[in-house]
């Protein structure tokens, strides 16, 4: 009996790579592909897969929200997060949403297959980096880290995303149709609220938290 797998990732190359390798496994059948979280939720209802390989950062609906809905509507479906993010800001919410597997995209193909089979058989499978974050979180009493992004206004988040794309103040001003002076004020506020020293740190922070 084959393990029915649904792949949810907005990057075509990633989906093709997963499809190419997983098709070589006699006990795994790819039943559908989704390009965003909302589509993944709909395809789970239609194809009833055993396992979903879920990216985190996707358009329309992210992987965490999609996982919550899938687990609410189809509790027997197992969700494996497959992402580039290993920090606790992504790991803990994903596990709380109901994911029973969490792997990084640099995982060896054979190891991913082991994870799929293990999760299908009711085991929890976490990447070693992820396990460390979970243990640290538990050792800290489950206290939630301060998410400084919550302190940013919508406009400041837009400016931060533009910084992550490597744009200058002048380019950001043109893109958001505001003055360069206003951009400078936003940048100053962003650095202050995020407790960062410069634009480079701000860009890295934005990429880490999925803004770019």
From TrEMBL:
Segments forming domain Response regulatory: 4-120
A Pfam family the protein falls into: Response_reg
SMART domains tied to this protein: HTH_LUXR (SM00421), REC (SM00448)
Domain HTH luxR-type, first and last residues per copy: 145-210
SUPFAM superfamilies assigned to the protein according to its UniProt record, in alphabetical order: C-terminal effector domain of the bipartite response regulators, CheY-like
InterPro entries named among the record's database cross-references: CheY-like_superfamily (IPR011006), NreC/VraR/RcsB-like_REC (IPR058245), Sig_transdc_resp-reg_C-effctor (IPR016032), Sig_transdc_resp-reg_receiver (IPR001789), Tscrpt_reg_LuxR_C (IPR000792), WalR-like (IPR039420)
Keywords of this entry: Cytoplasm, DNA-binding, Phosphoprotein, Transcription, Transcription regulation
PROSITE patterns given in the database record: HTH_LUXR_1, HTH_LUXR_2, RESPONSE_REGULATORY
Superkingdom of source: Bacteria
Residues bearing the modification 4-aspartylphosphate: 55
CDD domains the record matches: LuxR_C_like (cd06170), REC_NarL-like (cd17535)
Subcellular location: Cytoplasm
Protein name: Response regulator
């Amino acid at each position: 009996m084959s393990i029915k797998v649904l792949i949810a990732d907005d990057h075509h190359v990633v989906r093709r790579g997963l499809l190419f390798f997983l098709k070589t496994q006699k006990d795994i059948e790819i039943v559908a592909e989704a390009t965003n979280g909302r589509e993944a939720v709909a395809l789970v209802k239609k194809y009833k897969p055993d396992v979903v390989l879920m990216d985190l950062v996707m358009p329309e609906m992210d992987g965490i929200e999609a996982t919550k809905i899938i687990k609410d509507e189809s509790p027997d479906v197992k969700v494996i997060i497959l992402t580039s993010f290993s920090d606790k800001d992504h790991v803990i919410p994903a596990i709380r949403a109901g994911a029973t597997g969490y792997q990084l995209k640099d995982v060896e193909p054979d190891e991913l297959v082991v994870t799929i089979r293990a999760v299908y058989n009711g085991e929890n499978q976490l990447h070693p980096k992820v396990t460390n974050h979970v243990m640290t979180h538990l050792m800290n009493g489950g206290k939630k880290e301060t998410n400084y992004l919550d302190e940013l206004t919508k406009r400041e988040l837009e400016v931060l995303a533009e910084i992550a794309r490597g744009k200058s103040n002048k380019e950001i001003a043109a893109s958001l149709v505001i003055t360069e002076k206003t951009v400078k004020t936003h940048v100053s506020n962003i650095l202050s609220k995020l407790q960062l020293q410069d634009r480079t740190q701000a860009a890295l922070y934005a990429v880490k938290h999925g803004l770019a």
